[in-house]
Structure prediction request, 539 residues.
Amino acid sequence: MPRPHQNTTKTALVRAHPVKVREDAVKFLENFAVQNALILPGRVPAFKNPDLLLLPCEFTKKSIHKKYLAAVACTTEAESLPYSSFTELWRELLPNICIQKPRSDLCSVCKLDTMALSKLRSLDEDKRKGLLERNMQHLNLVDRERQFYKTNIDHAKLSVENAYNSTPTLNKSAPCTFSGTNHYSFDYFQQVHIPWDPDQVGALYFLTPYKIGLFGVMCEPLSKMALFIIPEGSATGKGSNQVISMLHYYFQNLGLGETEAILNADNCVGQNKNQFVMSYLCWRVMVGLHRKIILHFLVVGHTKFSPDYAGGVFKKIFRRTPVATPQGVADCASKSSILHPVITGSVDGKQQAVPMYDWQSKFSQFKSVPGMKKYHVFEFSSDNPGVVLCRQQSNGDAVTFTLVASDYCDENLPPTLPSLGLTHKRKSYLYDKIRQFVPDVDKNELCPMPDLEPDASTEPSADPVAVTTSRNSHDEPSVVAELAAEVVDAVDDVPQHDRLRTPKRKPPKCSNCGTDGHRNLPSQCPLRKNETRLCKKCL
Prediction:
């Protein structure tokens, strides 16, 4: 007869843990989350649970289970759940308790309140009550501003759906041709570097490749974001002039031509929340490009919104795609259905597809809003031109300020700003250090041979390209170009492993006689050869 298995007479109920033990584990997790969790309404886009409790990233499930075992050992209960059953119970019954990932941009008020709430037992009744009231006021403010942001998006979606039979696309539209409301959000993203390859060479990690700036304007009703790709050579800065210029380009070439626009941005003073952005929105209403504009800023520390989601989609595609040119970055963004790439200029900065205007000089006569930082809602209307209506909160009392006279009607655009371009030093760095990592097809576009500086013929240069060109400066331009092309081909023909070979170390220098080639040792320095050396026994 075959030998029967020992577990044939046992059932799952026999192997299960008692209900009392499971209840105690759930109560431990709930109490632990109440004491240590962060409550951040609308702050974490990865979780959709409104009752989310985020444990600090310093905790792990293993460390929490050890605390649970220590708590059980202090009681009379002898039985406790093992780690696998503990985590399974956590996952099934308490999915709203999560451990957050490491972050560097948490709200300072929420962080300080959480640290203070953990010490409530040591505070008296009045301080405890005041701390709880202050924490709840901040959370209610964050929740109210987030709800105002979501309500505006829903209202804009309904307005677009009623005006169009099908979902419109990002296309050029005349101003005020769509009598409805649309919602936009804009923000800068972290820049990327090219050439980029998922299988990165170790040496490239310690270099500074060509920089690509990213700026996005999100149209929430259409779930489309225009991703402005800003090459390093065509950049003109990162201030209000650039933000306004890209917003102006978007409204002219990609907007729906709405009469009322609601804008959202973060609280960065140098880029978004400043005098010139307010003056630009006021100017658009006064010249008839919009009839009403509302600019809303979320609470500091709780500014995660739609552009961050779209930027994350781009970064997810970018990190696994080899890219060597700005056009490659645009092709990478085109793989997502929610991204519409726009390249602002050429690699060398000689051509600008998106003109950058000097808006600061145009709006120099506009007044600024006193105490602008404390306001979060700004409203401009054609019924009251030249005036901005400000609120500290979405439901707060309105305060009006006059920015310019109501008869202002200058519709002309300001002069364009030239691109900063690349310095000769930066071009030489890209050519000497980065060119070897660029594919052969894109070498001359991303890292071309740098031009000679005006005084390069009078100064000695160790660069073989510069030496060759300076020696033949009296020749015809065609001859110089041929010689430069030969040098470029010679550099490209060098094997990759030879170009990555580390340079030789400098010869040592003697600190006694000051000559190179030896060290300060009696056996090497000629001035110390006659020194008497005693053995250890004599000493």
Q: What stands out?
A: Confidence is low (pLDDT under 50) at residues 456-502. The first strand starts at residue 53 and ends at 55. The chain is about 35% helix and 15% strand. The first helix runs from residue 12 to 15.
